Amino acid sequence: MTTRRHALRAPLAHHFDTLEQQHDANVLGMWVFLLTELMLFGALFLMYTVNRYAYARVFEEGSRHLDLAFGAVNTAVLIVSSLLMALAVHSAQSGSSRFRTALLLMGTAALGTTFLVIKGFEYYHHWEAHEVPGLNWLWTGANAPQIQIFFMLYFFMTGVHAIHLIIGITLVAIMLLNTLRGKYNEMYYAPVEMTGLYWHLVDVIWVFLFPLLYLVAKH
Amino acid sequence: MHGHIIPTRTYLLVCGALLVLTGATVAANFVELGVFNTVAALAIAGAKAALIVLYFMHVRYSGGLTQLIVLAGLLWLGLLLVGAMDDYLTRGWLPVPGK
């Protein structure tokens, strides 16, 4: 007798008593991982706080060199992507058609990619203006070393965030393919839910990066 | 079926609230409030993060253990920021012997 290569996975692993218990364990484990991510970004937020406290005026000037419109649009793009992700998990857990879930995942990945493209334009803009520390830094105004710290933090924080978003898009793409192949159903959708938790955390990080980088001073 | 299913309507309302708050934080940037600009921006960011964590990430409907873990994470993040900053803010208060 032959078995299908991608046979449906048994919903309940043998070391759990109930699906509910398995679900709670999955969520708990994922949150512990997400908190290590929070500590990683926490260290970056701490670096930011120390330097902003020391060079408050200069950070205001640096912030004015960021494009508020790009930042605000990107914030909205990520929020809507999170909505689609939440709806994709909802669709998977309530046993909707796999195409509905796949479509929502596709929308999530597309908006995530839109965010990166907009960020890319911003980076290009800073490159043209010689505002990239270490690569083509050229500042003729006052307080050049302190402004450089602001831009270092800007590129470091948004860069680490972008890497997380790239990982998120990759995970969503894998969920999309698996969904279309019929690997998930309303009894087994944990990978989709965990990808959702990761995606929302990346959104939460941006929710703080936006005011801290773009809204330091009146534009 | 397992795990609490939140109605689609709730997700749409939360998303609407998040977009309105984003508009509010951008609008607040054009009003001169002194230090309160930063306070307002961080308060709005905190409210948005709470909405995402409670509804999109289902923590409001999660088990007590998960909620406890989330709170513990916030506590440790707070310790990191407060512990480091009270050092930086008070460094100059006392003279260092021999310096």
SSE layout:
The complex is a heterodimer of chains A (219) and B (99).
Chain A: H1 19-54, H2 56-64, H3 68-93, H4 98-128, H5 144-180, H6 190-214
Helix pairs in contact in A: 1-2, 1-5, 1-6, 2-5, 3-4, 3-6, 4-5, 5-6
Chain B: H1 8-29, H2 36-56, H3 64-90
Helix pairs in contact in B: 1-2
Structural overview:
- The complex is a heterodimer of chains A (219) and B (99).
- Chain A has helices spanning 19-54, 56-64, 68-93, 98-128, 144-180, 190-214.
- Chain A is mainly α.
- Chain B is mainly α and 99 residues long.
- Chain B has helices at 8-29, 36-56, 64-90.
- Chains A and B meet through helix 1, helix 3 and helix 6 of A and helix 1, helix 2 and helix 3 of B.
The largest pleated sheet of chain B is described as: none
Shape of chain A: elongated
* Global morphology of chain B: flat
Strand content of chain B: under 5%
| SSE arrangement of chain B, N to C | HHH
As a whole number of angstroms, the C-alpha radius of gyration of chain A is 21 Å
End-to-end distance of chain A = 70 Å
What is the terminal separation of chain B in angstroms? 68 Å
Secondary structure: number of strands of chain A:
0
Runs of chain A in which pLDDT lies below 50 for 5 or more consecutive residues are none
**What's the pLDDT, averaged over the residues of chain B?**
92
Parts with pLDDT < 50 across at least 5 consecutive residues of chain B: none
Strand content bin of chain A: under 5%
Rg calc of chain B? 20 Å
Pair with the biggest interface: A-B, 53 and 49 residues
Q: Helical amount among residues of chain A, as a percent range?
A: over 70%
Q: SS-based structural class of chain B? A: mainly alpha
Structural class of chain A: mainly alpha
Q: What number is the mean pLDDT of chain A?
A: 93
